[in-house]
Amino acid sequence: MGDKEGAIEELKKKYVRRALESGNIGTTAKSAGICRTTMRAWINKYENQIVEEMDREILPMEEGPLSRQELEKRYEQALKLLGEKELEVAVLRDLFEKKSRR
Question: Residues 83, 89, 95, 100: what is their CA dihedral angle, to the nearest 10 degrees?
Fold first, then answer.
């Protein structure tokens, strides 16, 4: 698989994970700029793999206390995700305001 195809597949998996985590396929599809049918197809293709990845991420938390380095890594990931979500909300608000002005 080429770099471009691999990047596209990773992007699809990212949106599938977001849809599974949020439980809102329609909103996730809209933020990805695709129709719900396409999002459903992606979920059908990648759901098992993504759920397994999510389960593996949860298991270490059950094994005991995390190291400072691991906590810092997770904190940075959370901040990054928060920033992405804030940007997404800002874009959606901007679109909503533009539509409501018409």
Answer: -150
